[in-house]
């Protein structure tokens, strides 16, 4: 007599749940990476300002428009926060004019690197005065050490 194999009934059913533990691990690793790299990212334009003995300007409620010229002669514009995108001179003038239409009392400052030629700073001042209609422009400096 031959024995018939005994079939066991599989009592396990397929699990229809998603295991999220690996996703949580990946998200924690990404969070740590972003927390470490975020402070290392420098925002803004590195400009080496000339040092002079001058009185600081009074702080208003709204931040000034800062037109920057780096040592390579590239133009940048920031309003309160720094900007790291180089602009053409006509783009900078258009942005300043548009901002002044919204905030006519905003101060405009020029942040020129000490190694940029004086000609570039004066050209920017003339462009801002003639094309954007600015009457008063400030020059930024670092205090003497």
TrEMBL record:
Top-level taxon of the source organism: Bacteria
Gene3D superfamilies, alphabetized: 3.30.420.270
Family note: Belongs to the ExbD/TolR family.
Annotated signal sequence range: none
GO cellular component terms listed in the entry, alphabetical order: plasma membrane
Organism: Aliikangiella coralliicola
Gene that encodes it: tolR
GO function terms (MF aspect): transmembrane transporter activity
Protein name according to UniProt: Tol-Pal system protein TolR
InterPro entries (UniProt xref): ExbD, Tol-Pal_TolR
Segments passing through the bilayer: 20-41
Keywords, alphabetical: Cell cycle, Cell division, Cell inner membrane, Cell membrane, Membrane, Transmembrane, Transmembrane helix
One BP term from GO: cell division
Entry keyword Cell membrane: yes
Function: Part of the Tol-Pal system, which plays a role in outer membrane invagination during cell division and is important for maintaining outer membrane integrity.
Membrane topology qualifier: Single-pass membrane protein
């Amino acid at each position: 007599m031959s024995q018939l194999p005994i079939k066991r009934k599989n009592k396990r059913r397929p699990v229809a749940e998603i295991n999220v533990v690996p996703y949580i691990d990946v998200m924690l690793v990404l969070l740590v990476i972003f927390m470490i790299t975020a402070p290392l990212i420098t925002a803004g334009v590195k400009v080496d300002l000339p040092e002079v003995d001058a009185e600081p300007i009074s702080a208003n409620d709204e931040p000034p428009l800062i037109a920057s010229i780096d040592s390579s002669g590239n133009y940048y514009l920031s309003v309160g926060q720094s900007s790291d995108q180089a602009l053409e001179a006509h783009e900078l003038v258009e942005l300043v004019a548009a901002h002044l239409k919204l905030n006519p009392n905003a101060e405009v400052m020029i942040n020129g690197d000490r190694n940029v030629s004086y000609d570039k700073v004066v050209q920017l001042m003339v462009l801002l005065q003639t094309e954007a209609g600015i009457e008063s422009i400030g020059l930024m400096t670092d205090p003497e050490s």
